[in-house]
Amino acid sequence: MAASSSPISRLIDAFASLPSIGRKSAERLAYHVLKMPHDEAIAFSDSIRAVKENLRPCTVCFNLTESERCDICTDRRRDPSLLCVVEQVRDLLAIEAAGSFRGRYHVLQGRLAPLEGVGPENLSIDALIKRLQQGEIREVIMGTTPNVEGDGTALAIASRLAGLPITITRLARGLTVGASLEQANRDMLADAIASRQPF
Hints:
Blueprint: H1 7-16, H2 23-35, H3 38-54, E1 56-57, E2 64-65, H4 71-74, E3 82-86, H5 89-98, E4 104-107, H6 125-133, E5 139-142, H7 148-160, E6 167-170, H8 186-194
Parallel strand pairs: 3-4, 3-5, 5-6
Antiparallel strand pairs: 1-2
Helix pairs in contact: 1-2
């Protein structure tokens, strides 16, 4: 049997196909799995299978869920008038980890990138507009990535919301708490000045 078709080689290739995982890291991960106790390795593979077989987009916000609606959409303690629009589920998870947002979300499933062939029809923008037209949401927070594509996506959505009685805000940008001005780059300082708040 050729070495390239051995189970360990296939596992290394599988890890190496993941984003940000180089060949050396893939080898370390594969050999770590090889050293895992049998039950732990099977549980690891079962968790991958469960994610692929059981998770689906929430029918309301496009967060991942095992049910028709996710836990956030069904949580009555959440403020239904406040909606944060994010690009990916991982963005939602990052905001949730901060523990300070008590509204609901809408996951776009990407961002506009015309050069890569990603247009509005490839995102969940139409579903977002339908949610907003129902009238329950009063404020939309644009939580898109602060770059050309993210800002373009937020601008495209905002233009579609013209005429609706909705306040549109965006996440503040700029300097992080404890950051020194000399270590901030030009874009960070520009965002900090543009997003300044009353003292």
